[in-house]
Design brief:
about 350 residues; alpha/beta; three-stranded antiparallel beta sheet; 3 domains
Amino acid sequence: MLHEAMLYTRGKDDRVDCFLCSHRCRIADQRYGICGVRRNQGGTLYTYAYGEAVAANVDPVEKKPLYHFLPGTNTFSIAAFGCNFRCDFCQNWRISQVTKEKGNEIPGYLLSPEEIVEDARKLECRSISYTYTEPTIFFEYAFDTARIARDSGLYNIFVSNGYMTPEAFSTIHPHLDACNVDLKSFRDEFYRKTCRARLQPVLDTIKLLGESDVWTEITTLIIPGANDSREELTDIASFIAQTDPSIPWHISRFFPAYKSTATGPTPIEKMLEAYEIGKRQGLHFIYTGNVPGESMDINCPNCRITVLKRGPGAETVARNLQNGRCANCGREIQGVFF
């Protein structure tokens, strides 16, 4: 559905400057931005990623992944098509790499912001997650939904690549409660070559989130031979620790996908190495994903008892928290609990 975009300015000769994401595209008349879903038509910027969902599902909030935000609750996950990255290893490439510019047929269906909120409430979800693809790219759709959701008592979650501009963040901030950011690498060369983007804007977004009241968790997919050196993993963990050592770091195991099928799965030994690096850098909460026997339990960094134990379906089966503190030693456990 065609909808006028937010976060752009008009320039000379019907050009527009888009400042939704950190590509900050200058778009000539009848041309698209890098995302392939925002088009300049006669000096007005329009988005095609509005009002048409390509996915709508109920998920445990732990799948986002968010382990310290409303644990044990369900979230209504919503996505529109498109992305501003071109990652070779994308898990959701069938919807994220679809663009109007390429003339792709859009696989979605009409679903208004009001209907999203209504569905979330009917399905007894505590939150709405803008996920699967990049929520910044369907920003107007997410923004309108988030405002209605907040008025209806629902929480809002972004699962993002972190490439939004400060202007975009300040716009969504009043309605945003939590965010998981993919920190894909700590090397600009990786971002330029693999994602067709840059590293620094992602770091800037994480710093902005760290200074805000938006609950934040970070995910890094460990790709063999690409971002898994001891030096780089140390740099990632050190950056998170310097931002806030209580930000949970999710280390996710790579499996071949999309254009990255020649690389095998991440060795378990490398996952354990990354975990130990995170501990040495002072991170309080580290979780491994896509590995046998992975645990979603939250342990107290001080006395090490399990303060929140989850079952195999992410349901909470035991809680040793009292007013957000460890019931054993009294240490504060950072997160949004209820």
